[in-house]
Amino acid sequence: MKYIKVFLLCVFASAILDSCDNILDNVRSKEEQQAQTSPYMGRWIGNYSGDENGTLVLDIKKSGSVEVIRSSGGMQDTYYTSLSGGASFFNTPSPNTGFTLFGNMETHSGTWKMSNSKGSWSVTKQ
Fold first, then answer.
1. What separation in angstroms does the CA of 95 have from each of 60, 104, 125?
2. Which of 15, 51, 108, 125 has the most CB atoms around its CB within 10 Å?
């Protein structure tokens, strides 16, 4: 009986230590993500063209979140998205117009879509 208690105590202690390791791994992972800086951080300005033409301003934050400001014909549409995998757009549409950027920041270009309209875009860092 004494050996069973010792065995159960060892199993219980091992489970607690394993759980603590998992918690520490999660904390370290979150700290690494917060410390990470997007290599594309900064203000990028360019144009989009196709079925509609206008200007784009991409304000990329340290975390990889992106403020998109699209202007055309005196109208302005601002919305927020993020970079997925570090460089590719997460394809979040504007809640106002449905305008969506596709592409990545490695090439500083891509395509866009809004309802039945589509085209291409490109930006350069300011």
1. 19, 21, 26
2. 108
- Domain positions in the chain are 1-35, 42-125
Q: Closest Cα partner for 48 from 115, 99, 96?
A: 99
Q: What tens digit of pLDDT does each residue of 99-115 get?
A: 999 999 999 999 999 99
- Higher-confidence residue of 36 and 122: namely 122
Q: Please name which of 72, 1, 81 lies closest in space to residue 38, comparing C-alpha atoms.
A: 81
- Alpha-helix runs per DSSP H in the chain: 2-35
Domain covering 42-125, topology: Lipocalin (2.40.128)
Model confidence at 4, pLDDT cuts 50, 70, 90, reads confident
Residues 118, 126: Cα–Cα separation, whole Å: 26
β-partners of residue 119 are 50, 112
